Amino acid sequence: MEIEVAIVKHLLALPGVSALVGNRVFQNGAVPDDTDYPYVSIMLVYGRDEECLSESPNFAEDTFQFSSAGLTRAGANTIAKQVNLALKDFSGVMGGAGGVNIQAVTHDGRHDSTEKQTDGTVLFYRDEDFVFYYERQ
Description:
Order of helices and strands: HHEEEHEEE
Radius of gyration: 15 Å
Number of helices: 3
Shape: elongated
Strand order of the largest sheet: 1-2-3-6-5-4
Distance between the termini: 7 Å
Structural class: alpha+beta
Strand content: 35-45%
CATH class: Alpha Beta
CATH topology: STM4215-like
Number of domains: 1
């Protein structure tokens, strides 16, 4: 299973996340134009292989950005808090049976942004970066 698929499955399996966004967790930043808010978008921002730090030749270290999008700043921050609870300090198999063996997940920073739509609506984002240390399959 690819790491991105495992992350999406993991987030959607948790009531704290799915209760807020339903099934709207998108990988590779591919959010459809007609998507309802709120949602979470995941994108790889940095990756590298770390063969020298592990006995496994498939060990990888990837940093993903999780963008929690909402119609209010409080809404975006509430989603981000649930994502943080789901990921920070995680270790074990992520994604269920056949999932990815995660050695650790660490939080690597956050920032907020807004986007004004042509109709005047303001959208709010909380972007958080997490580093995944895992065994690539």
